[in-house]
Amino acid sequence: METEPILIAGGGLAGSEGAWQIAERGLRVVLYEMRPRCSTPAHKTDRLAELVCSNSLKSNAPGAASWLLKEELRRAGSLLMKLADACAVPGGAALAVDREQFSQAVTEAIESHALIELRREELKEIPRDRRVLLATGPLTSDSLASGLQALTGSENLAFYDSISPIVDAETLNMDRIFRASRYGKGGEDYLNCPMMEEEYRDFYEALRAAETVEMHAFEDVRYFEACLPIEELARRGYDTLRFGPMKPVGLTDPHTGRQPYAVVQLRPENLRFSSYNLVGFQNHLKFPEQKRILRMIPGLEQAEFLRYGQIHRNTYLNAPRLLSPDLSLRAQPGVSIAGQLSGVEGYVECIATGLLAGIAIAAHAQGGAYTVPPRATALGSLVHFITHADPDNYQPTNISFDLLPPIENAPRHTARNRQARRELQCRRALREIEAWIQDLGNLSAESFAGHPERSEGSLYFGTE
């Protein structure tokens, strides 16, 4: 068993959760948080786990993918989920928190833990002779980013994130869509949504008038010319989109026998063809605006969005190329990565990677084995994606049911049965996460204190 303390860089959601998990397993931790000595343009306080954007941790409605991830974290003894539940404020179906109360509670918990030393300074270099967890988030300092580039290769560290929307394949109207690749090359790999001139004009005008997300000062609105948001392309002229992501050349609509006026192409996200990416449709529109405007695309009238488009400053690694399933660097196993730096999006996803990295580091430091969560769980599927996705087209992700393996012999694909299949996925995931927790065998009883009451007859909370 190692006697040197584990080092953690970053006191955000992932770093705080990771520190707690390691310390709860009897190991000393030194947590480096450079605020307030060195602040960032995004943060307003010196507290740990500060929520810099929304105060919402997304849906808390049983049966939602985000709920499933939260529930697995609760059962696995997550400190931050316990405190988020305690600091909840009215938020409809979402788990919204009093952000000041939440960050204060996390800070007090970390500061009062006998095995955690909180150092208010920057960790500027990555040690090679100690176990270290890097969880410095989207605004990783220049010095640490340089160290990561030297360790992983500069081509594997991105500083700007451009994400296209993803739609559920079951919700597409295939009567308006045809399969084809441009000029017939590569088979029928893409779904194509053809537009007539009038449909394109309405779509163009809607984009021009759409509400966009207000950019943070630290994000510096200087888009890459090769990856412009669709609303910016629309501002540059009526035909700009038709010469960009909506170009119709090389495609013939079998319904008309002619080349469409414009085309939106959908690319499969996985080999199950259960979800599709809107190619080149990265954008900075508000989510309700995306839903409204993108449903103007023929074939997407009732589309359900598994992920909306985004463009923002985000430092992250090419995780599929670099990370092992225990979230350590393959080339440097003593260095682990968590939070947005590991290639996940969202508050709860950051907490999840912090918890898993912390558990794995503690297991290795104590000379024991670490087993990743089962693939059928939200935790296991999230880690499986970031460590097994296509490294050449990698984009960070939120949790979604599309990441989880399908249920065998599930009800046939209809909108009515979609919820039934998700309920089955939830039941299976919770059974398997409970078994994984039992196999860990080293969670203290206190880890479960304050767990939300489980109803014996509940469809989702039962472990039948």
In short:
It contains twelve helices and 16 strands. It is an alpha/beta fold and 464 residues long.
Report on the structure:
The chain has a six-stranded antiparallel beta sheet with strand order 10-11-12-13-9-14. A five-stranded parallel beta sheet has the order 6-2-1-7-16. Helix 1 packs parallel to helix 10, helix 2 packs parallel to helix 10 (347-365) and helix 2 runs parallel beside helix 12 (415-440). It is α/β, with parallel strands linked by helices. It has twelve helices and 16 strands. It has two domains: 6-161 and 312-448, FAD/NAD(P)-binding domain (3-Layer(bba) Sandwich); 166-308, Beta Barrel (Elongation Factor Tu (Ef-tu), domain 3), CATH 2.40.30.260.
Question: How are the SSEs placed, and which strands pair?
Answer:
Blueprint lengths: L5 E4 L3 H12 L4 E4 L23 E4 L5 H11 L3 H8 L1 E2 L4 E4 L1 H14 L3 E4 L12 E3 L7 H11 L4 E7 L2 E3 L9 E2 L11 E5 L1 H13 L20 H6 L26 E7 L6 E4 L8 H8 L10 E3 L2 E8 L1 H4 L12 E3 L9 H19 L12 H11 L26 H26 L24
Parallel strand pairs: 1-2, 1-7, 2-6, 7-16
Antiparallel strand pairs: 3-5, 4-5, 8-15, 9-13, 9-14, 10-11, 11-12, 12-13
Helix pairs in contact: 1-10, 2-10, 2-12
The name of the CATH superfamily of the largest domain reads: FAD/NAD(P)-binding domain
Radius of gyration from the CA trace?
Answer: 23 Å
> Helical residue percent?
25-40%
Overall tally of structural domains: 2
What CATH architecture label of the largest domain applies? 3-Layer(bba) Sandwich
Strand percent estimate: 5-15%
Topology order in helix (H) and strand (E) letters: EHEEHHEEHEEHEEEEHHEEHEEHEHHH
Number of strands: 16
